[in-house]
Amino acid sequence: MGSVCLDIVKKDLKLTGKGQASRLGKQHELAGGPLGIFGEQAQKHDLNIGEVSERIFRNLEKAFPKSEFRFRNSLSKKEINANLSNIDKRLGSVLYVKNASIKPDGGIIEVKDRKTRWRVVLVGESKHQGNDVEKIEAGVKQGKLKDADFMVAGNAIERVHKNILEFRNYMLHEKYFPYVVFFQGSNFATESFVVDSPDGRKIKIAHDAGNLNRIDRVTASNYGMEINKNYCENIIITNMGDSQMLQIPSLFFQCNLWSARRMAEVMWDIALTSLKILQNEL
């Protein structure tokens, strides 16, 4: 688990506003840590991110009984533009499709602050691209002529940038950004390895091959920072003497499928980070 989550476990997280002093640390320990909170189902490999998000939502309600949470599947462009306009009237002024919205596959978890405003706690997505390992192991050739071991990686995964930008617009006024994306598939391998083909060949999956790897294209959204880390809390940079706050999505990559267990660990850590940052407003 990340250091932020461990720090919260070690001492109680105090929430003000409604007079709440939630003893999450003790509940965390009694449940056997983050995995215990989710029970045996979170150990399964086949739970999708939406199911993991729903379990996180229910357990946040249990851990913080005096706070009000909600779970929703989409965020409308009207809401995004309204938030932008509240910051500066020049922003959020264009909307051609009135019912336009974005729908992250892990949904959106929010908490109500003491001014009755809904604040985002967690947004999750999971993306898969690249089935080369499975194809090679099955002896299935790929490509237009069906004569290649690899399928040249496409660009469909880059669509994730849109949702990240939309949530940055929505949370432009916030000091945190609880957006996490889990990438899986041969296009997101972080190290090279060999796959055995039925014909006896040992075929290398090269993590730095330009025709396969798409990590560099996705990290355009996190300013080229290290991957597989919790970046929920905004960072401040200085450029030419001026300070600027950056909101960074937490991008997690690996070739193998992400287990529900690992997604639960990461997402719970990010949710706790959000609540820690918001603690004086709840």
Describe the structure.
The protein is of the alpha+beta class. It has one domain (3-281): 3-Layer(aba) Sandwich (ECO RI Endonuclease, Chain A), CATH 3.40.580.10. The chain is built from nine helices and eleven strands. It has helices at 3-10, 24-30, 33-38, 49-63, 77-87, 132-138, 160-170, 215-218, 260-278, and strands spanning 69-72, 75-76, 101-102, 108-112, 118-128, 179-184, 193-196, 202-205, 235-239, 242-246, 250-254. The strands form four sheets. A five-stranded mixed sheet has the order 1-4-5-6-11, sandwiched between helices. Strands 2-3 form a two-stranded antiparallel ribbon. Strands 7-8 form a two-stranded antiparallel ribbon. Strand 4 (108-112) and strand 5 form a beta hairpin. Helix 4 (49-63) packs across helix 9 (260-278) and helix 5 (77-87) crosses helix 7 (160-170). The longest helix is centred in the last third of the chain and has 19 residues, at 260-278. It is globular. The two termini are 25 Å apart. 33% of the residues are buried. Residues 1-33 have low confidence and may be disordered.
